[in-house]
Amino acid sequence: MDVASATITGSYKPLCSHDFVDDHGEEMPELATNDEWRRIMIQARKDQGFTQASLGTEVGLSQVMISKLEGGESTTSTHILRICRVLSIPEPRHYADEQSRSWSELGHVLRHGDPDEYAAIVNLVEKTAKRIEKEQQAARDAKQGETRSTRPK
Question: What distance in Å separates the CA atoms of residue 34 and residue 109, rounded to the nearest whole number?
């Protein structure tokens, strides 16, 4: 995998534990939430005119449980995917580090702006990543050449 792909696509992973099956035979993993996802959920719920109670009814949870999820009092549920589908929001993402989270947020902002500007920025990042990769390879090759030339014969 090249540096650009690793940087852009490898920055998050869903956090799952146990899998459950819903009434329709669909597997519903227990997913963990985070502050970012809770903010998105709350905003989407309000923007779409759902109350906590009406969203709960839609996804099969009580108003109290929706409140606990939004407030972070409950941080996992097998209903997270249902909530995501009803509100048309992404699954919670858990990042390896702050830099990965920042890159993801930047990408989200850019993607929802001017498509041409987004494409130009992605192109620039990919070119830069390829240049860095070539420079790193040249440095490794040079170091390997030095090692060979300093070995006793």
Answer: 19
Separation between Cα atoms, residue 152 and residue 60, nearest integer Å: 74
- The two three-digit tokens of residue 90, written as one number: 């992404």
Give yes or no: residues 111 and 52 share one domain: no
Range of the domain at 75: 12-95
Report yes or no: 68 and 8 within 8 Å, Cβ to Cβ: no
* Predicted TM-score (pTM) above 0.70: no
Are 103 and 47 part of one and the same domain? no
Asked whether 36 and 94 are in contact (CB, 8 A), the reply is: no
pLDDT tens, position by position, 102-129: 887 787 778 778 888 888 888 998 999 9
